[in-house]
Structure formats: C-alpha cells, structure tokens
Specification:
Length: 502
Amino acid sequence: MNLVNDPWIPVVFQNGRSSIVSLNDAFALGPQIRDLNALPHERVAIMRLLVCVTQAALNGPDTYMDWQKCRDQIASVSSKYLQKFGSKFELFGEGERFLQLQGLSLDESKTKNKSKKAGGDEVVSAKAETSKLDLSLASGNNHTLFDNAATAPYREISKERLALTLLSFQCFAPGSLIGVGLWNGQQLKGSSIHAPCSGSIIHAIIREENLIGTIHSNLITKHDSQSVHGNEKWGVPIWEAMPRSEDDEALIKNATETYLGRLVPISRAIRLLDQRSMIIANGLAYRPYPAFREATISTQVRKLKGKEQLAVVMMSPRKAIWRELHSIVIKNKGELAGPLSWGKFSGNQDVDLWTGALCCNKSKIIDSIESNFSVPSAMFGEIGGKIYEEGVLYAVQRDFNLGIAIRTYAETLRIEPKTIKRMMEAASLRFWTAVEDGVKILLDQVVTFSKIDSWSEFVRRHIEDAYEVSCPRSTSRQIEAFSRGRNKLINLPNKKSTRDKK
C-alpha cells in the first residue's frame, strides 16, 4: 500500500458524503472536501502531515505576502512533490517505508514478555500486535469503555486503518516502558518520553470552507518560524532525511529540532511485520516546550514557585476547553498565545476554530475531547479577551460557592464525608455541563463589548438549579439544611475554586 495513491484519509465532501481518499487526492479534491472525518488525535496528525507536505513543496511561504499568493498553488505543487517522494510513503515492502525504521529487529536476548534484567527491571518484548497503534482501542493501558472488541484474541486491522493509526501513534504515543529492540545492531533503550503532540496538550486548528483553505490557513511563514524557533530551524520532512542509526546526529537533529522535521515525527521505532504484528521500540526523543514550540499548541502565563512563566495550555478531564479559550486567543507578554499560524492574522476577522486534545495520566490515556468555536474578531483584542476571561472567572467563582453550599447542607444533616464529596462533584458536573450550552451568550457580550450581565444571570440560574437538584428538601431537617446552604450559595465572597487550580 502506498499512502500517496491509495485511499486512507477519512473525509467529508461538500455534499455530505463520507469517504476515504489518498494523500494525493486530499490535495487534488481539496476544494470539494469540506472537512476531515477523524478522531481528535487523528485530525491533528493528518493536518500536520498535510501542512508538512505543503510547506515542503512550497519551500515556504517565506513571508506574509507569499502566503497570501500561495493558496492556488497548493494542490499542484503538493501533487508534484508527492510524486517525487512517492516511494517514501510505502506501508510495506523491502525498501523505505512511511514512518518506519529500516534495520529494526528484535533483541533475541529479550524476546520473552516481562522477562527480567539482571538489575531486576522489567523488560517488555519489542514484538506486539498492530492494534496497539490505535489509541482509541483498549490495548495496553487504554481503557475498555468504548471498545467492544477488547477481549478478542487478535484484531484484523485494514491497511487503510493501519496507515492512519501509525501516523497518529507517532504523533501522540504516551511515554511508557517499551520494548527493547535493535536498530542496525544498536540497542534502543526500553523507556520512552511523550511524543511531541501528547501529554494532554490542547491543539488548535483553523477551519475554512474546504480542505485546501484549511491547509492554507494553518501554514506558517518562514519569517514567523524564525522568530519563534530561531535561525536554521526550518528543516526538511523526516522522509527526506531519514536517520539510519543513532549515530546520524545531523539527521536526528533535523528530525527533532526543526519545524518540518517535527511535524511528522518518529517518536517510536516501528517496523510492521504484517497487518497483525510489528516490532516496536523507543524512537527519537522530541523535547517538549519550552525546548521547542509545536505549531498547533497555545501558551499561557502561569505562576510557578511565585514566578510568572509561560506554559502550554493543557486539557483537564474536569475542565471543558471553552474555559481556556481566552488563553488560546489573547497574547501573553507580547508572545502569540495561540497556534503559530495565527501570526498571519490581523485580528479583524472571525475565525472558525477547532480545538482538541488527548488527555493522559503518565502512560495511560484518560479521555479525548474536541470543541468547535466561532471566535469573533473582538475576542482577539485586549478588551474582548478580558470580557471573556471575566465571564469564565465568574462561573468558576459560582462553582466554588456551590461546593461550599452543598457542604453546608450535607454537614448540617451529618452526611459522611465520602458522600459529601460525591454530591459536590455531581453538582459541579451538572452545573458546568449546563453552562457550556450558553457560551454563545458570553461570546455575544464580547462582540458588543458589554458587561457580562446576561451571562451572569444565566450562570446564577444554573447554579440554583444544580443546588436544588442536589439537595432534597422533603423533611423539616432537610429544609433547614437547604436554607443554610442556600445562604452560603448567595452570600459567599468570590474566590477561585480549588478544582480550577488543578
């Protein structure tokens, strides 16, 4: 299978038809394709590949003016580029393969799963099922909640799906203990760090009316890359300069320390044996921010040990992405907060923004999340951003008050602490789920530069609702407890929720 000519990318056409297309057709049919039809981590990985091919084909754009002119060239130059390097995109075969290392083999001394080293450290076999590449399946440390085939003895994965999961896994593999393999005779260590897109990072992608437009809007200029990454950090894609061993320092540096090199990474050393099995070991090490800033991430100012520092905007299972939207949009200490592609926009236009993340707890994948926003141009200004931030903070403060109110109610009735905690968590979840449906109210107030009165009323209404549902009042004791709790709900001073600090 060749990824340039054979279909594997899931898309939705303008007429609503879902299909899969080849890498070449993704560009050739780009104006007819409305959007990708993929899971959050798969969308990010596919977009990084499409952007990488485009920027390598254009060898740019160099400046903002070049970017303005290049949209109509994307399909034709990318097609020529893919034909030139088509042999690098084979999924199987004896020669070079897409995102797979040549010369990768099993370390025969460590082929038994969970064997022990002399020092007592656990060693995992480097041979595994290809299903482990699919981060949406229950394999390894992944949960089984959405995987009905978790107990099957083996999984038959189509070549099309295998191509997509290989790309996504290289971008999002969580750090963990991993098999020990040999790369052209050199032993690869048995532990790995997060792939460059992993670690609960929120990624943001601008969407346009078709796939070509989306690719165009997410390109960055060489000028912007230089201002963020420094000189000589543009690089070339991994398939143009594939390392042959750990001694290829210049090629490894290109792969791990340049913009184009990191867009499509080799975070794990992989060699597919067939559709069911593979060799997998530790790949190249991609140092995270602030060592290198990925094009799709956002940063915000955080206090660490009393000092303000820029940190990556992360996802939390308890916290919907809309609560971080102002962090993605506004600038921090003069630095562009959002994705690097935003450096080309003046801030006087609305933006259709997709955001998503794969939440991890060390090596375990917890959840995936995505959200779409129609971000008004007013949001990009300091006033609009502050209005939105104020609205989010107001909701956080009310959530804090809700927790105190429920605790007061429960302690009055002498309910045990474990039950109180569950009551507080359930009420908070109910509140945030309801409030998320009203984010448009807050965005409308950003557009009009008005006070957040309508938003405040909306939030108060749902705080009252969450409290009333959580605290029954059918007996005289419950009525008394309800009254005491409600006084706390209304009269407590504003304070940032400890839940929000996590």
